[in-house]
Amino acid sequence: MTREILIRDLTKCVVCDVCTSVCRDRHGRARMSLEGPRFGRYQLPNVCRNCPDTPCVNACRLEGMKLHEGRTFVTESCKGCNKCVEACPFDVVLLLPNDHKKKEGFFSKVLGLARTTAPKTITGHVAADAARCVQCGVCGYNCPVGIQVRDYARQGKTVDDPRCVQCGLCIAVCPRGTLRWDIRPQVPTPIFHADKCDLCSGYAHSACVKECPTQALLRVPADEHLLDLNEQLYYEAVGRYLTSPDDWEAA
After folding, report:
1. What is the CA radius of gyration of the chain?
2. Beta strands in the chain (DSSP E)
3. What ranges in 38-161 are assigned the alpha helix state H?
4. Which of these, 15, 9, 4, lies nearest to 68 by C-alpha position?
5. Which residues contact 34 (CB under 8 A, 6 or more apart)?
6. Which of 42, 102, 123, 226 has its CA 20 to 30 A from that of 138?
């Protein structure tokens, strides 16, 4: 499927804020804002642009960010390791605490009445086998909060640093299998998860586009047809990460 982006027609927009309101109602927070670069009558709002080189997906080591049909989205495997946030060139990926609640529709609320128990939260720490650790430092280098995990691993101690977000990235990247959860085979519940605009993946339509009263918001393919709207807009949306006109055509 062709990669799509969200654009705003400034000649139609009356800044009524309906788009951000319906986005907030659907997702629990507004994943978009009416800011961003302008190109003539059009603007690229501050939302995910589904970059052709997918820096967020490439940065994720825990399968928490995926690319599907030209669109990047956060999966349930996200452990809140912050790597996608650091990789995003537009600062549109945000970490949310796992107690952040997405607003639910009527039927979801009705179905939720049948839930009588809350999911069990598993706590634990990263443990290490000191005999296997070679002090390469890969674990600490990848830690999103900067914990020097190898200092614990050298002594065979569990990581009890309160800054640990229990993402498990240090375990995933350790080249020698030195690290594990001390409650193996269970794993802790991560403290954070990533959140960003995914053009309302899983819904029949994008709420902001459908509810815009002046049809100022548009979902458009990020291809050569953007040239018909604005040449600068085209190269910003399609060619920003590419190095030559030949690459732009290939995109």
Report:
1. 21
2. 4-9, 38-39, 42-43, 65-68, 71-74, 94-97, 126-128, 179-181, 192-195, 217-221
3. 55-59, 83-87, 106-112, 138-142, 149-155
4. 4
5. 8, 13, 15, 17, 19, 20, 43, 45
6. 123
Residues 6 or more apart in contact with residue 1 via CB below 8 angstroms: 69, 70, 71
pLDDT at 240: 54
- CA distances (Å), origin 220, targets 2, 89, 185, 209: 9, 21, 45, 11
- What DSSP string describes 62-78? SS-EEEETTEEEE-TT-
**Which residue has tokens 């458009």?**
220
What tokens appear for 173 in the block? 């990247």
Cα gap 94→82, rounded to integer Å? 8
**What's the pLDDT at 2?**
75
> What is the identity of the amino acid at 42?
Y
Neighbour tally for 93: CB within 10 Å: 24
What separation, in Å, do the N-terminal and C-terminal C-alpha atoms of the chain show?
13
CB under 8 Å to 22, separation ≥6 — which residues? 207, 208, 211
The torsion angles phi and psi of 88, rounded to 5 degrees, stand at -65, 120
pTM: 0.76
Pair type for strands 42-43 and 4-9: antiparallel
pLDDT of residue 244 exceeding 70, the answer is no
pLDDT digits 0-9 by tens, 138-157? 999 999 999 999 999 999 99
